[in-house]
Amino acid sequence: MPWQSNGDGERPNPWGGGGPRRPGGGGSEPPQLDDLIRKSQDQLRRALPGGKGGAGLIFLAILLIWLASGLYRVETNEQAVVLQFGKWTESAGPGLHWHLPFPVETVEVRGVTDEKTIEIGSRGTMGRPGLRQVSSSATDESLMLTQDENIVDIKFNVVWRIKDLGSYLFNIGDPDGTVKGVSESAMRELVGQNKITPIITTARGQIEADALQLIQDTIDSYRAGIEILRVQIIESEAPAEVKDAFLDVQRAEADQQRMKNEADAYANKVVPEARGTAEQMKQEAEAYRARIVANAQGEASRFTSVYNEYKLAKDVTRKRMYLETMEEILTGMDKIVIDDKAGSGVVPYLPLNELSKTKPADAGKTE
């Protein structure tokens, strides 16, 4: 019931209308509430195009709500892609963004920092709830041919994450299958370039690094938007069927290497000594050669001088040589001198040997 229409006249009108006027009739009447609302509606209707105030307000409110629905927020561990009628048009990083609301554009937001692991050559399964994980072998993936035509059983994991969400969603259809196929192919290529012994012993780290680079290069060529974080070789050994025989071969190779090292050490000790001895013998031979040559040259010089003297006085020289030779021959021998011109009897006989024997006794008697 409006205040001014109270017919009983007992309820006071706050605006003073309808009641008795104050004495003197001074001041104006306060505005009515319905008049104010009506005036506001008229002013808003005149301000809007076409003058349709109610429908315009509703349309404006709906438009604002629709535009506000295009706001979206991307967290620090997420990336977003904007799709315009289903087509990828742009990507967005962390922060507050806006896109044309549905159905013109939609947005896909996903976390990109979570790491995913692909197992190759083995399958991890849970035995019973709450128990540890049990790994089973997948030999169709793990058995690979080496450079020296042996079979190696190698199991490894590849850890990866999303690098570019747009490329990840729209350039490849099966990310897990793509990473797995590329990783297995890369590992088979690297194993085929190495021998089995370094693969299972000292070259595992290098193979992991080479596999990481090779897988990343191949994935990038696909523009898959994936980053390979790690390649981890879990196990690399000979197949179970030939493992014992292979260990025997390894032990034999170790013995071979040990004996070779011992032989090298012995050679390093003996060879220098032999070389020193050879050098000493060589120097002694050189000295002997020099001495013999010098002696020969001296003898030849002496012979030449004797020969020259012989040519000057052949008879004297011949006689001197004869006497020197006879002196050399008869030295220390018993000698008897017989003068063939002294006639017969004992006179020509001179027993020099007897005299030499009796001479010491006679000498003692005279003393």
UniProtKB/TrEMBL annotation:
InterPro entries: Band7/mec-2_domain (IPR050710), Band_7 (IPR001107), Band_7/SPFH_dom_sf (IPR036013), HflK (IPR010201), Membrane_HflK_N (IPR020980)
Ranges of compositional bias, category Gly residues: 15-28
Pfam families linked: Band_7, HflK_N
UniProtKB keywords: Coiled coil, Hydrolase, Membrane, Protease, Transmembrane, Transmembrane helix
Transmembrane segments annotated in the record for this chain: 53-72
Gene Ontology BP, a term: proteolysis
Region span, Disordered: 1-33
Source organism superkingdom: Bacteria
An example molecular function term from Gene Ontology annotations: peptidase activity
Membrane topology type: Single-pass membrane protein
Localization terms from the record: Membrane
Coiled-coil annotated spans: 242-291
Family recorded in the similarity comment: Belongs to the band 7/mec-2 family. HflK subfamily.
Main function: HflC and HflK could encode or regulate a protease.
Assembly description: HflC and HflK may interact to form a multimeric complex.
Protein name: Protein HflK
Organism for this UniProt entry: Gimibacter soli
